[in-house]
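Q: Given only this backbone (170 positions), what sequence would you predict?
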């Protein structure tokens, strides 16, 4: 075990009190846990000011970020599709002119088709974007949950070591 007491861990995290444990340093602390004894880790976790609130805050911040990303994405998609529709409307108006040559009509039709291809490509990109962001949010929430489970699991393990049921005689 690399860390033998709380003071060593605080020095490694660059804090003088557990009240100064930021979200970033909480992640570093979790990464350091394998290098400390279970007793020391549990003693520290018990001192965290409202670990449950911290975990809720992390998940809440992730939700807000995801929602704002979705809102911005939705607005961007609306603008893009509206612009494509406006281009098609203009092209259709041009197509209605009687004095166009076959080549001019063909060019306008190709431009209308191109806006359709652009929208299809943009839709595919958007679905990929949403998928990647959902995976990130799920991974972050999973990490917060895993961190909570690790703390709770460690506490349960420590409590079970102290339990008189462990010393059953044959």
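A: Predicted residues:
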């Amino acid at each position: 075990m690399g860390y033998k007491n709380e003071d060593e861990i605080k020095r490694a995290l660059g804090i003088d009190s557990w009240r100064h444990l930021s979200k970033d340093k909480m992640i570093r602390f979790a990464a350091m846990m394998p290098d400390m004894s279970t007793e020391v880790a549990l003693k520290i976790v018990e001192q965290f000011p409202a670990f449950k609130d911290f975990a809720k805050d992390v998940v809440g911040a992730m939700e807000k970020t995801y929602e704002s990303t979705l809102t911005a994405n939705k607005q961007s998609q609306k603008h893009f599709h509206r612009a494509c529709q406006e281009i098609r409307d203009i092209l259709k108006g041009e197509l209605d002119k009687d004095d166009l040559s076959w080549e001019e009509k063909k060019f306008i039709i190709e431009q209308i088709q191109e806006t359709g291809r652009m929208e299809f490509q943009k839709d595919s990109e958007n679905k990929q974007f949403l998928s990647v962001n959902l995976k990130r949010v799920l991974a972050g929430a999973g990490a917060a949950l895993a961190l909570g489970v690790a703390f709770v699991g460690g506490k349960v393990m420590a409590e079970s070591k102290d339990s008189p049921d462990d010393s059953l005689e044959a």
